[in-house]
């Protein structure tokens, strides 16, 4: 058989090829998700549809059907599948005549698709579900509203294929094969609706309200978002009262057997969900669900015209058969070629047990239901016969029946005194092993052994009590860190956590060596190493986690290059340089105008000290940090000569008066012109006009250079008249050739010999014809000019004429 799976892209491309198809020929169905070859991600999807072959309006089963998989967390579409028809078999009815008369003929049609996927693609912890969605139901269904417009939705939930980083193997429950049945009004009715689970998971059964999808009569939805609604019940009906009766329809939550004594004719829809539980870490956990939607018809079966209750006996044993363990008995019913037979065991139909005889070996209650082949009438039921099976009871020696996954147990038959002819081992009531006195047990189950001796044949074999061996799954320890990656800096740590459970024991390992005292579910790990958590559960099963490796990252220092002192405001912006560089670095502080590029602009800042910072945020703490530098913008030495130009006498050593600050350092240039160029007021001797420079450096190393022009006088010119009339021409007595800072004494006398002007040492404020703030009268005044440096003296007269 070749099973094909078309991936979602192709599947969506085929939507246009699928015409809307009414589903009034579909009476039920379900979906199975099977893991193939015990390999996670290797999946077979099986869709079972029950096709109404007589009420299909000339329809035939499709060659393929769609199944869509969604993620439970957000109902998001995951993938779509086209499942191709692989098998078609008819239902077997107990009374074909009656079923045909009531237009009951159903085909079970199987569709399959396979795909192989990386399990990590189905790793969401909340799981997934597969659906089949189409329209519509029969238009004459009794217990739901608008059945002709109500779509049919089959759904199976399945767990993630990865759990705690490991493949998780699971197959959904499989419903048993259905037989074709109808319900006779006011007759007790039982219907086996159970399933099996190849993984050995525990199953429970309950009713649910059937679901309807997004499809309608004119549109078959292929891409819905996984949000579905239940059908609407007619008044008086609900999921636990889908078929009215006394008692109404019920289901055995453990065995999955339906029972009802219907009191109303009609066609009734119901749905059963199988919940799948698995023991994980000592607790049963719901891991999946499978739903089966179906419908049953209640008809009025008249009393049979000529059929008595069938009589049943056990050949050779009468009506109270007692046999030895390992023997069989044949039940014989009243033989009638016009009858149809259905044998029952403990209230359930025995599949394919439809003849007038039955071979039985299990202890329990047997009975027979008989129908007329060519008459649709109520059935007749035989009396119940209880089959007893006897044996000599012996006990096993005490055994350790609990073991862990991956372990085995040896089970040895008890020693008996009689010679043994045969051993026969049983597991869960089925033959497990042949003629050996011990077996190896690898799976859970109920085991016993029957021992046949050479005693006389009328002695039953010895049968041991049953030992229930339980294979306990190992715990599934995982290590969960409290940070997103596995890297730390020197001195840091990562808190590693397991899954805390009651009665669990823990042991941590570092580089394959156990850590003394580390026996809780948490570990503070501060070294680069591989860490493993071993967990022992209450069943003494131990499992180690996958290693968790912690790596040490190298330290990367954060720095900011120092910035030189600014003597006065800088003329341009300054580039700050931080390390390590990159977009994760940010500059900040007063004057920083670009935080990403680190541009500092101090051109308009007041004098002072400013903090600038560089902060780098690396992936780890040891590769991050913030550093700060101080930038100083200070005022340079502040000094100005009283006059920017001075006059000296040619070839005469003259004192140049400068600043007098002991905290400053002086440097005159050209240095060769000075007696000591490091003095604030040095002496100089010139024979030509010269520009001098004074460099002043303060204690901060900040300096300034001040120019000084020096004029060299060779002779003196003394005017003999001034006209102080405020016309800005010749208003004061300008004596040329003595300079502003020359050592000169000038005295002016009136005609009575009184001094009206005197200047000692410099002639910075020329005589303007006033004395003590008052204007002197016009006239002739005498003067005396004494220049000690040149040993010269001049005398004469000065006329004031206004």
TrEMBL record:
Source species, domain of life: Bacteria
InterPro entries membership: PKD_dom_sf, T9SS_type_B
Pfam families: CHU_C (PF13585)
Protein name: Gliding motility-associated C-terminal domain-containing protein
Organism in which the protein naturally occurs: Pseudarcicella hirudinis
